[in-house]
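Trying the structure run again after the queue cleared.
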Amino acid sequence: MDGFRRIPLSLRVPLLTAGLMVLLGVVASQQVLSTLGKVQDARIRELAQLQIEALSVALGPHVLRDDIWEIYDTLERAAGETKGRRMIFTVVADENGRVMAATDPVRAPLDSPISALTEGAQTAQTLSVTGDAVQVRLLAPLRYQGRTVGQIMTELDVADLISERLRAGQLLLLGNAVATGVLSILGYLAMRRMLMPIARLVRRMRETADAPEPIPESDLPRGDTEMTRLVKTYNAMTDAVEAKAETERRLAERERFVSLGRLSSSLAHEINNPLGGLLNAADTIRQYSDRPDVVRQSADILTRGLNHLRDVAQATLDQNRLDRSSAPLTFEDFEDLRLLIGPEVSRQEQKLRWQIGASGEALSTFASAPIRQILLNLLLNASAAAGAKGEVSLLVSEKPGVLCLIVEDSGDGLSDAARTRLLSDAPVPPGGGVGLRLVHDLVKELNGCIRSERADHITIVDVTVPLQQSGMPPPC
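Done. Tokens:
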């Protein structure tokens, strides 16, 4: 069965059709032979009944008178008239079953019991020819004028009927075999032709698995059949696959340009934000050039800010991935952030709350560049959301195995587009800034998580990242 299932459908169905036709031919032949046998049995019963009735009419008076010689003479005449025909041997017995006369007295002596000769005998109503027998034995009551006066046992020759049955059976089997064979071949070829589109479709799908190609119109099945609709559906599918591939190519091309735009925007965003603080430090040096302590402090800020810009540029060159080999995060990085956003906070007369509650050991497990970029983007967005005379807060704390960075503002809260950029991986349309999406990507690379909520008119963005040496699983 498993081997048959491995045969292709285009070959399995024709073979099954041919097999069913052969089975149908065999069943039909058996039915015809059975019907022929029944017809012959009916014919034999009819002949036997006529034979018995004729003998009963001729022998009845002689049996009543117990005239043995007349009975014998009648049997002789009947046997002579049927010479070369059906009756071979006939015995007549009285009511007590004693033989009165027979066509062969040697086989049936006078006054012997007829029961010795009736083994295997049949009645006229159930007479039938079975097997290869060429003779049948019939036992029937001898009736005369409505009464039973004795018994008749006769043997009939049915060799011609058996021969006729065998000849008819042979001719029937030969004819059925030829017809079944021809019909099986025609059925096989017809089914193969009908299933050819499926075989062609399977072959085309196997040969063009990577880039399916439509089947030419010249190879489509004629008419509006299921096969035609199947092939047309396949052609429509190939067109859809080709259109989808073209769409994906165009989307990839568009995404490439969008990525380039995001890359340029990110680079400009990350360079432009610190420039205000750096220019402010340069102005401080120019104004207080006679104060060495102020000059040193401003020079340190310039150095760290320029190093940060170098890290950003290097990260951009490394396919927008941050340089993990940059300097570790320290308290000075937070002071730099405070100085960098200072001009923007002062310009809008905002209140800035700043609290760094983590240990230096915990901070040193992180590279400074990603944390600085995360906080710088969040603080700039918070300052823009808080507006004039608003409030902005940065709270950094250390919990078991994690570092918590919380940025708060008194603005109206994040818009749906901003929440999508910050909290989800869903694609966003180009434009509208890249700061929040960059924060999302950086936190994800650090195995951290971001939560945003609004309470008491305050928008809270909570960034939690695991300490590098803690071995803790991601907090989200």
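The longest strand covers residues 147-157. Worth checking whether this holds up in the mutant runs.
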